[in-house]
Structures are given as structure tokens and as C-alpha cells.
């Protein structure tokens, strides 16, 4: 009871401070423009999920390979010291249909859309138009954005859900100082993926038919503040883009720190399973935190939906735990492969007929080149 009372009190202070800061910023001209930041959405022909945020435009822009550590730190500071725009209405339009929602105290908005008619599409990606209805600034003008939504086509073979930290890129997620240094002093160019990962993910996206229709989803405990950083990193290193499911960190109405790693990732993976029904998934993670435990729970909650699990081995002290989980997964009819090299996973996927034979040599070539570049 005391904890809940303290939490409520501190949260009210936080919200009040944010409101005062925003009013001050508008009055003094520190807030000159606002933007809608849509994160990639997803769903099916019957339902769509989209999350985004309304913020002060801080003009962060793209990074350059030669950017200094100070410049990288400055951009990261801007990402975390954001100016949220709370309690404003955002309109989403698709064809002749439209929906309206309101941002919360942190500037986030969510749409759970059920179109009146089934969505007709030939490409996996469709666009949703967004517009800020309320006026925040004097002489604001129109504030609009276009959101990309992934809707699987009939040609999908399977979906892929992957962790990011220590699965795609080595970050030292289990070593706090190493992770902070990597995050705040580096940029999209200096965050180097594990060797061969980009080519392997490209092969999975293409699948056995080579058509690049298989949806890629990324679930991480990283904060939403890093969304543009992570999408730029993926683009720079040719990792297939897809919806990223991140989280809000810090004080909330319910918790001092917004949710546990386990609860967040489990809820996001299961949200994907709910909104993208009828297709199996390959799940990819690492042994450093709790990906094997999370994926085990997914198998129990959604029997028959998990096709395969690849776990990058990054923690020797958790090896036995992962092996115990492997035994339990096997009893449930799902295979898990503990790997230290991307080629092992790629060869396994080829053997299963999930990727094309010609893509194996591409993955090997990428891995060899990555090793040369990283040496």
C-alpha cells in the first residue's frame, strides 16, 4: 500500500513537471515544431496494430561513419531527453476509413484498427496516413506522417521473431557498463552485427521460394527512444526491416521501472502471434538473458505455432539451464538449436528446406567478409 501510494505521488510529480516543461518550451520558443513518429505496424487483413509517439522535433537525423563519440553522445542525449506531447488527438486514415486516438502522458498513441472491409493488398507493406488534429503551437500548420504496416500475403511460408541485443549485435546486455558505453558512444555504423547475420536474415525473409515475403519482427527490451537508432543500424548493415517491439522505460503509473524483461518480451511475442494468425514462426534469441524461458512459455501458450528456435550461445553459466529447457521443448515437439556460429543455423535451415541452397554460399561469403572487416 505504501509503495503504491509513493508510486502514485512520484508519477504525478513526473507528469506535472513534463507539463510545466512543455508549456515553458512553447512559450519561450524552445519547442518550435512537433512531429508524429510512427513505428512500423503490423496485422492482418482483418486487424491492424500501430504504435507511435508525438514529440518535439529535435532534428537528430542520420549518422555518419566518421561521427565522433561526442556527436554520437549528443544525439543519444537528445533521444532520451525527449519532449513528449501528451493528451493530443491523432487521426489515422486508410482509404475512406479513419480512426482517432489520443496520446498518453508520455506522448504515445496506439491504434487497434478493425477496418470495415478486408484490406486488399498485393504487397506486404501498406501505408496508413496520420495527422495531428490538435494544435500545440501557434501557427503550427499541418503535422502529418505516413506509417508503414506489414500485412502478410498468401505467399508467406513462416514468420521470424528475433531479439536484437546479443542476438543480432554483440552489446554485452549482461554487462551494464559495456552496454551503456556501446549505446551512448557509438552509432548505427559502429554497431557491428555478428558475422553473417544480415545474410542469414535475408535468406529467412526470402524463404524457400525466394520472394522476400516472410515477415521479420524484432522484440527487444531496449527503450522506444532507440527506435530510429536501431532501424538505421539495420538499414546500414542490410538487415531486413520489420516491426520493432520495444518498451517504455522509467516511472509509470504501475511500476517504478516499466516492466520486467521477461514480461515485456513475452507479451510482445504473443501480441504478434495474436495479430498475425495462421502462420508458424521461427524464434531467434540468445542465452544471456531469458529468451529460452520466454520462448518455452510461447510454445505452451500457442501449441503448433513455433516452427524452430535458434539460440545464440553467449553465456556459459546458463548453458545447463538452456539444455534443460531444450529437453522440455523437445517433449512439446519443438526443436531448439544452441549455436555459436550463424552458419550452423543457416545449414540447419537449409536442411529443413526453409531457405535456398544458393543462399548458403552468400551467407558464407558475408560471414567471411564481416570477419575481415571486423578484424
Automatic annotation (TrEMBL):
Residues 158-313 form the Phosphatidate phosphatase APP1 catalytic domain. InterPro entries: APP1_cat, Mg2+_PAP. It comes from the Bacteria. One of its GO terms (molecular function) is phosphatidate phosphatase activity. This is Phosphatidate phosphatase APP1.
Amino acid at each position: 500500500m505504501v509503495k503504491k501510494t509513493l508510486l502514485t505521488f512520484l508519477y504525478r510529480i513526473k507528469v506535472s513537471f513534463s507539463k510545466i516543461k512543455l508549456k515553458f518550451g512553447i512559450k519561450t520558443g524552445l519547442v518550435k515544431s512537433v512531429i508524429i513518429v510512427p513505428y512500423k505496424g503490423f496485422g492482418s487483413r482483418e486487424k491492424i496494430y500501430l504504435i507511435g509517439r508525438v514529440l518535439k522535433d529535435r532534428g537528430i537525423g542520420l549518422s555518419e561513419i566518421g561521427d565522433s563519440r561526442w556527436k554520437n553522445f549528443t544525439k543519444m542525449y537528445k533521444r532520451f531527453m525527449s519532449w513528449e506531447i501528451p493528451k493530443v488527438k491523432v487521426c489515422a486514415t486508410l482509404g475512406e476509413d479513419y480512426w482517432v486516438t489520443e496520446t498518453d502522458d508520455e506522448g504515445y498513441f496506439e491504434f487497434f484498427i478493425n477496418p470495415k472491409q478486408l484490406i486488399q493488398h498485393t504487397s506486404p507493406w501498406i501505408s496508413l496516413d496520420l495527422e495531428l488534429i490538435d494544435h500545440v503551437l501557434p501557427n503550427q500548420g499541418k503535422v502529418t506522417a505516413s506509417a508503414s504496416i506489414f500485412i502478410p500475403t498468401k505467399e508467406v511460408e513462416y514468420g521470424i521473431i528475433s531479439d536484437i541485443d546479443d542476438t543480432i549485435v554483440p552489446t554485452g546486455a549482461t554487462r551494464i557498463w559495456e552496454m551503456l558505453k556501446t549505446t551512448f558512444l557509438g552509432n548505427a555504423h559502429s554497431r557491428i552485427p555478428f558475422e553473417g547475420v544480415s545474410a542469414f536474415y535475408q535468406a529467412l525473409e526470402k524463404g524457400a521460394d525466394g520472394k522476400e515475403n516472410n515477415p521479420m519482427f524484432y522484440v527487444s527490451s531496449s527503450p522506444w527512444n532507440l527506435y530510429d537508432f536501431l532501424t538505421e543500424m539495420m538499414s546500414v548493415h542490410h538487415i531486413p526491416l520489420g516491426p520493432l517491439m520495444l518498451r517504455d522505460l522509467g516511472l509509470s503509473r504501475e511500476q517504478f521501472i516499466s516492466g520486467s524483461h521477461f514480461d515485456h518480451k513475452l507479451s510482445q511475442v504473443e501480441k504478434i502471434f495474436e495479430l498475425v494468425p495462421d502462420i508458424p514462426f521461427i524464434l531467434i534469441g540468445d542465452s544471456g538473458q531469458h529468451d529460452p524461458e520466454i520462448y518455452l512459455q510461447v510454445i505452451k501458450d500457442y501449441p503448433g505455432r513455433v516452427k524452430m528456435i535458434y539460440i545464440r550461445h553467449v553465456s556459459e553459466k546458463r548453458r545447463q539451464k538452456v539444455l534443460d529447457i531444450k529437453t522440455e521443448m523437445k517433449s512439446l515437439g519443438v526443436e531448439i538449436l544452441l549455436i555459436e556460429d550463424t552458419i550452423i543455423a543457416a545449414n540447419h535451415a537449409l536442411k529443413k528446406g526453409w531457405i535456398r541452397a544458393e543462399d548458403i554460399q552468400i551467407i558464407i561469403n558475408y560471414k567471411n567478409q564481416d570477419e575481415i572487416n571486423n578484424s
